[in-house]
Design goal:
Length: 685
């Protein structure tokens, strides 16, 4: 109760005995159209959420929330009163405390007439001395306008049939919960790739850019959340598990950074939209996030801001303009979740404090060539990342590229940061002080290098590669920790210096599955892993392989590096997986002969010692199992989710594969191995 008072939030408390419900309850899901949810549980409490809109009868109304030991509500352990109001779009958040650790509870909301929501199920965190293994899922990137959420249906189906000790404890949603970019069907009648566009979001006041629409104010952002939460599979998942949520980019703006939006390489101030995006996120996702200037966490305390240009940046690339600072600090999402003694999930925000993304800058085009799709010499990416710190603080005014001297547009700017100075200090301190068996970095942005070896292409296939050696990718916008070399090295050096064991990263955003090692550098530099890293595929948003299938010309000389198609095959194979794992020689051999053994014999051992698995076309979800001696991550991959499955299990699987790492001692190197697999992994290994 003291916590609730400090947070300024409605609260309920376990009254110490259980009794049948006294509410004359009648379920009316139509009155609670977005369902129910729970979030951020700890050992003794959890946040509960619903939305009960009213069209008549005033601007607010009371609700009763009941929490029970049983799904029949014969053993009610806590009752609380909350209010919904028009000011919060009729949503409410209730903190229920005094609960027992590691327990399943059921909850429901009802109005003054006893008309109630669907029943939700939630779970409290295990006690700090509960040594049982931990299981949680991590997911990202759901676009209900372009695909189906079959992954959630599969997850629910399997969890309902699992033994109690094998069930998932919570869902870590790493962002892109909504996509603020919406294509209206009439603006794109051809659809998106092979996908039909679902006409479920119409912005009341939105702005049209090219052939898509974006939100401009709070009403617009609220509209997209309401549309997404009517999806039955997403709603069922939120009713079954507590979610631990963090935003990525699309909750605000596609290439947004701090309080800025960016389209076609040009940034513009959008502090009012950043605040609106934060408010809608706060209203629809129950989470223990902070509002530094607020007196209550029951509702969002919106600062008054205007869209003001940023003319002054500090030494870390943070815009010091007052409206920018007010906007990005209106909601602070980075935080840590403890789940028993084995897991501390340390969650960071990769967009609110990041400096301007060099890869998304229009000046970057000078370092690309159409002959080499999305590839930039690795040495140039390193120069631009380090900026004024490059060459021991003596960066050159120009960069040699393809026999020309190109202006170094970053030579006077601070080094790239994704976390920002204040958050990074918090993160490193939290990591250093953690006593959990597994210190898991919940990072919405992937940390593994996307690297290719075009220097090994045979002469005559295409134009000569203009770099000195390896290439990195500029195909991920906004870019992630795969090209934030200096900041990533700073973090990994701390892990090595402090002899931190059990360091792992779970990430998303790339719309693909990856498993590998956390290492600050790759050959020919020293390769010294300090942990393991995993990336999950998207729930439903399109991925890179799908894009290649539609945009790569059949006569593109380097097409075999990305797609290859055997005679009489209905669809091409994702050669890009082999490209990232084994290199260009393997891809060209496989395209020529179709013989995987011959292709793997040509693998470049220095290209990707950090990678164990890549599937650039994977959709689905991932499950962590963390125990005292080892950690496992299972990728559950479904077919491309073009339409909602009518099957109870969400439809067929493409594959499932598990990678396992034993807890290593200080000074040792982690060893990741594939411990099980089922289905066709294709060219992903």
């Amino acid at each position: 109760m003291a916590t609730a008072a400090a947070l300024g939030i409605c609260a309920g408390w376990n009254r110490g005995w259980a009794a049948p419900s006294q509410v004359h309850f009648q379920e009316r899901r139509d009155l609670y159209p977005e369902g129910v949810a729970s979030g951020d549980p700890d050992e003794h409490s959890v946040l509960l959420w619903t939305r009960r809109p009213y069209t008549t009868g005033g601007s607010s109304a009371p609700l009763t929330v009941e929490v029970a030991d049983d799904d029949g509500f014969q053993r009610i352990v806590a009752v609380a009163t909350a209010r919904v109001s028009a000011a919060s779009d009729w949503t409410c958040r209730v903190l229920v405390g005094g609960l027992r650790p590691g327990r399943v509870y059921w909850y429901r909301f009802s109005d003054a007439e006893g008309l109630g929501s669907r029943v939700g199920r939630t779970i409290t965190a295990p006690a700090h001395d509960d040594r049982r293994p931990v299981r949680f899922a991590f997911v990202c990137c759901q676009d209900v306008t372009q695909g189906a959420q079959n992954a959630y249906r599969r997850m629910i189906f399997e969890d309902e049939r699992a033994a109690p000790e094998e069930r998932i404890g919570f869902i870590f949603h790493m962002g892109d919960f909504i996509y603020e970019i919406v294509c209206y069907p009439e603006d794109r009648p051809q659809g998106m790739y092979d996908r039909r566009l679902r006409d479920i979001v119409r912005y009341p006041n939105g702005e049209k850019i090219a052939d898509f629409h974006i939100p401009t104010d709070l009403a617009d952002y609220r509209a997209v959340y309401r549309a997404y939460l009517k999806d039955p599979d997403l709603q069922d998942a939120r009713a079954r598990w507590p979610f631990v949520a963090m935003w990525d980019n699309h909750e605000f703006s596609w290439c947004g950074w701090q309080g800025m939006q960016q389209f076609d390489g040009e940034s513009r101030p959008a502090q009012t939209r950043k605040v609106a995006a934060n408010q809608a996120w706060f209203e629809y996702l129950p989470a223990r996030v902070r509002q530094p200037q607020a007196t209550s966490l029951e509702r969002f305390d919106s600062p008054v801001v205007v869209d003001a240009p940023i003319t002054r940046f500090d030494d870390h690339g943070l815009g010091r303009e007052p409206n920018n600072l007010a906007a990005i600090n209106s909601l602070i999402g980075y935080r840590a979740i403890n789940w028993g003694p084995h897991v501390e999930l340390i969650i960071t925000d990769q967009h609110s404090y990041r400096s301007r993304d060099p890869i998304a800058s229009p000046e970057m085009q000078a370092f690309t060539r159409p002959a080499f799709l999305d590839l930039v010499p690795e040495e140039i990416l390193e120069i631009l990342d380090a900026s004024r710190n490059h060459a021991d603080g003596r960066p050159t005014a120009t960069i040699r590229f393809d026999s020309t001297d190109v202006a170094n547009f970053r030579k006077d700017e601070p080094p790239q940061t994704i976390l920002g100075a204040e958050q990074k200090a918090w993160f490193i301190a939290r990591l250093r002080n953690s006593r959990a068996t597994w210190k898991i970095w919940g990072n919405t942005q992937a940390t593994l290098d996307y690297r290719v070896d075009p220097q090994n292409l045979p002469e005559g296939l295409t134009k000569p590669w203009p770099g000195k050696g390896y290439a990195g990718s500029c195909g991920f916008t906004p870019s992630d920790f795969g090209t934030a070399y200096a900041e990533r090295a700073e973090i990994y050096d701390c892990v090595a210096r402090e002899k931190i064991t059990g360091f792992a990263t779970v990430s998303g955003d790339r719309h693909s599955f990856w498993a590998g090692y956390a290492a600050k550098a790759l050959p020919p530099k020293p390769f010294a892993p300090v942990g393991v890293a995993f990336v999950t595929g998207s729930i439903s948003a399109p991925g890179l392989v799908e894009a290649y299938e539609h945009v790569l010309p059949k006569d593109y000389p380097l097409r075999p590096l990305y797609l290859t198609q055997k005679a009489n095959a209905a669809k091409p194979e994702a050669a890009v997986n082999m490209l990232l794992l084994h290199g260009v020689r393997s891809c060209l051999e496989y395209s020529r002969s179709g013989d995987s053994a011959k292709a793997y014999a040509l693998s470049n051992p220095d290209l990707a010692p950090h990678l164990a698995f890549v599937d650039m076309g994977g959709h689905g979800y991932s499950v962590v199992r963390a125990a005292a001696d080892a950690m496992e991550v299972e990728f559950v991959c479904i077919p491309r989710p073009l339409e909602r499955s009518n099957e109870a299990d969400g439809g067929s699987l493409r594959y499932r594969v598990t990678h396992r790492v034993r807890l290593w001692a200080a000074g040792e190197v982690p060893h990741l191995r594939r411990s099980s697999q089922d289905g066709d992994l294709g060219l992903s290994v």
